[in-house]
UniProtKB/TrEMBL annotation:
Name of the protein this chain belongs to: FAD-binding FR-type domain-containing protein
Location within or outside the cell: Membrane
Source superkingdom: Bacteria
Cofactor(s) this protein cannot do without: FAD; [2Fe-2S] cluster
Principal location class: membrane
GO molecular function: 2 iron, 2 sulfur cluster binding; flavin adenine dinucleotide binding; metal ion binding; oxidoreductase activity
Transmembrane segments: 47-64, 85-106, 126-145, 157-177, 189-208
Alphabetic keyword roster: 2Fe-2S, FAD, Flavoprotein, Iron, Iron-sulfur, Membrane, Metal-binding, Oxidoreductase, Transmembrane, Transmembrane helix
Amino acid sequence: MNTDTPRPPGPSAPALLLLYAALGLAPLPLAALQGGAGRGFWRELSSGLAMIAFAMLLAQFLLSGRFRRVSGRVGIDVTMRFHQLAAWGVFAFLLVHPLLYAVPALGDGPGAALSRLSGMFAAPGLRTGLVAWLVLIALMAMGAWRDRLPFRYEAWRLGHGTGAALIAILGAHHALAAGPYGADPVLAGFWKVLAGIALASLAHVYLVKPMLQRRSPWRVTVNEPVAERTWRVVVEPVRGPAFDFQAGQFAWLNLGHSSFSLVEHPFSMSSAPADRPRVEFTIKQNGDFTDRIGEVPVGTTAWLDGPHGAFTLAGRDATRLVLIGGGVGFAPVVGILRALRAERWPHPVDVLYGNRAATQILYRDELEAIARELDLRLHLVLSEPPAGWSGVTGVLDREVVETCLRARDGHVHPDALYFVCGPAPMMDAVEAALSGLGVRDRNIVSEHFSYR
Ligand SMILES: Cc1cc2nc3c(=O)[nH]c(=O)nc-3n(C[C@H](O)[C@H](O)[C@H](O)COP(=O)(O)OP(=O)(O)OC[C@H]3O[C@@H](n4cnc5c(N)ncnc54)[C@H](O)[C@@H]3O)c2cc1C
C-alpha cells in the first residue's frame, strides 16, 4: 500500500461530473439542430426537461457502484451519493414532464388542464411513456423508503434493477415513438445507443460478471468469532488468479450461493495485499445475512466481486496518517494497518478506535504489537468502559478527537491524511470535529457502510 501505487482507476470527481452533465445536455443541441421548435414555451420546456432527465437516467446505470472504471477513483460513497442525488433531479424533471403539457390549458381553468392531462394519460400512443412514468414514481418511493419496506435487501435490489430496466426500455420507446424530436435519426441513434449501454451494463453485472466469476471460485478456510457478534472470515482461491487489491478496499462477497445469486454483500478486506492469496473479512452481525455469518462452514464456496472503493492510501500524498474507526468500521482500517506493518511504514500514524464496550475491540493484541513496531499511537475509546479501563472514555466527538490528536506533540496536523469509517453518526461527528480543527475536506478520506 505504498503511496506510489496508482490510485484505483477511473475519472476524477470533476471529470465524472462534467461527463455526466455533457451526456445529460447532449440531446438539447441534437434536438435544436433539427430546427422546427416553436411548439410553445411549455411544450418545449417539457420536452427539454424530459430529454435531459432521460439521458441522465440512462447514465445512472453506470453509476451503480459496480463499475470500477467509473467509481474506482472517487470511491463508493461519492458514487452512491451522486447516484441518489441525480436520481432526485431525474425524478423532478420527469415528474413535471407530462404536467407541463397541461399548463397552457390552465388559461381555460383547472378543469380544462385536468381534462388535457387525462386525455394524454388515456392516449394509446403515450402508453409506454405513462407506464415508465408510473414505474419511476414507484422506484423512487422504493428507494426513499428502502429500510422501512418489508422486503429483504435482495428483493429490493431485484425490484430496483427490473424497474430501472423497464423505464429504460419503455422510456426509449416513448422518446422514439412519441417524442417530438425522436424521428430524427441522429437523436434516435443517441437514445438507442444510450439505452443499449444501460441495458448492457445490467447484463454485465447480473450475467457476465457471475459467468466470469465461475472461473475463479474461492473457499472459506476460516470462520471464527473475534469480538462481540463479530466474525473473522478468511477465503482463499480454489483456482484462478490471486485477488489483487489495495488495503482498505472492499469486495461484494457471495457465500455458498450460485455466482448468479443476488445474495452478495459488500465487506472491506481487513487483510493486507501482502497476505494474498488469503483474503480476510471482519463481519459484524447486523441483519438477515450477517446474523447467520457464524453458521457458514469452512469449505463453503465463495465468489468475490472486487476490489472496489477508494478508501485506500494508494496514490495519495501522505507522510502523516490519522486512522479513525468506529465499531466494525474499523475493518478496512485494520487492513490498512496490516499493510503499513508489512511495509514498515516509517511515518507517524495516529489511530483513534471507538467502541461501546471492551468486548467489541477487534484484534487488540495485534494492534498493540503494530503500535510497538511503527511510529504509531493507538487511542482506544470506549463509551462504556470496564472498571480499571486505561484508555479513553467517551465517544469520538470533537473533544475526544482533539485530545487524542494533540497527545503526540501538542498539535493537530491539518496536513495529515485522515481516514474515517464507522457508523454514520460517528462519521458526522468526526468529520465536523476535523473540519472545526482546520482539516480540509480533501485531506479526509471516508467510507460509509450504508448508502443511506
Ligand atoms: C463499502 C462497504 C463496506 C462494508 N464493509 C463491511 C465490513 O467490513 N464488515 C461488516 O460487518 N460490514 C460491512 N459493511 C456493511 C455490510 O455490507 C452490511 O452490514 C450487510 O450487507 C448487511 O446485510 P444483512 O443482510 O445482514 O442486513 P440487512 O438487515 O439485510 O440490511 C441492513 C442494511 O445493510 C445494507 N445492505 C444489506 N444488504 C446489502 C447489500 N447486498 N449491498 C449493500 N448494502 C446492503 C442496507 O442498507 C440494509 O438496509 C460494508 C458496507 C459497505 C457499503
